[in-house]
Amino acid sequence: MTRPNMFIVHVSDAPESARFYGDLFAMEPVFEAPRFIAFELGGGVQLALWSGAAEDLSGPRTSEVCLNLDGAPASVDARHEEWTAKGVTIVEEPHDAVFGRTFVAADPDGNLIRVAPLD
Question: Which residue ranges does the record assign to the VOC domain (predicted)?
């Protein structure tokens, strides 16, 4: 069976967004072109940042990048404090949802990044 192996996030400036995501997740790009930068997430799966379709950035955001953390709820609250100290935009403060403690941040283009407990 074929499975998705790359998730593409549309951004207005790929190098700027790569610095943001690289700092946020402590990772380095594995591929870099002027408007397309990819990070290896493990297991052959990549997160790519693409500024090749800037006209599409005005539409609604319907997906999230999600970081699942072990040790929740304390680890989720700690990551919120860490990202807040870095100046990351928080669009949904930490709260308890049906799946556990969570919060949502946004990248410079408004793409959503959820932090939630590891199942």
Answer: 3-118
